[in-house]
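Is this the right way to post structure tokens for a design question? Let me know if I should format differently. Anyway, here goes:
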């Protein structure tokens, strides 16, 4: 969906389930798939004689994202453009790291990805780029010891961890600050008591691409606001 002026007129393809015939009809020279793409979909496209490149890894880091951008640039003949993008990302990352090095403390952060069931919301665990983003932004992920990159956490565990900041990347899907405040038992959480519940633009933090660095800056301003005054 970005940049909007470039993609708004592109043909949309049904992906759940994937419309193979529609993909073939577009006669693509290359199909890009993510590491989370259904393996059966990848095989089916390859069986249809399409060239498929799978990018991304199960464990996603900022460095992996940079390498994926460079790889896509290489296979599409846009090496220079890809390097320009990644150089700008690295430059901004270095500047943010220098600023965040002055943080006096690292608050505990609960990052909510999906609260379809608010008693067992999804949150980023180790191996996810959001987990690394929290750390880079000067916080401590309360789910840093989860067993999977994207884990369900019991509400009781959130309450016990007593996060000082709650970040809602599911805000665009109907979760509000007020709805979090009234969850059973959450009134004792420091983030709730101190009004430190913040929505964040999920477009910046839900996809491991060039805008991830902007997502890092947005998160850092929520986690370490004093450094950005």
């Amino acid at each position: 969906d970005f940049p909007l002026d470039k993609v708004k007129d592109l043909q949309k393809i049904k992906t759940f389930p994937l419309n193979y015939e529609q993909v073939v009809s577009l006669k693509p020279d290359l199909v890009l798939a993510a590491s989370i793409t259904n393996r059966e979909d990848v095989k089916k496209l390859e069986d249809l004689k399409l060239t498929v490149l799978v990018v991304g890894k199960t464990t996603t880091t900022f460095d992996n994202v940079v390498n994926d951008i460079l790889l896509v640039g290489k296979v599409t003949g846009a090496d220079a453009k890809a390097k320009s993008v990644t150089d700008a990302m690295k430059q901004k990352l270095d500047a943010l790291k220098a600023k965040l090095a002055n943080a006096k403390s690292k608050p505990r952060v609960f990052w909510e990805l999906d609260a379809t069931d608010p008693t067992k919301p999804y949150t980023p665990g180790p191996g996810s780029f959001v987990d690394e983003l929290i750390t880079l932004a000067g916080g401590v992920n309360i789910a840093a010891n989860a067993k999977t990159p994207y884990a369900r956490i019991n509400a009781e565990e959130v309450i016990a961890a007593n996060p000082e900041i709650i970040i809602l990347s599911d805000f665009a899907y109907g979760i509000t600050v007020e709805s979090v405040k009234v969850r059973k038992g959450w009134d004792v959480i420091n983030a709730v008591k101190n009004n430190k519940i913040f929505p964040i633009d999920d477009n910046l933090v839900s996809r491991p691409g060039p805008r991830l660095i902007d997502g890092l800056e947005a998160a850092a301003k929520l986690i370490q606001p004093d450094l950005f005054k």
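Format looks fine. Someone answered above. Worth noting: Residues 16 and 38 are 10 Å apart (CA to CA). The chain has two domains: 4-99, 104-228.
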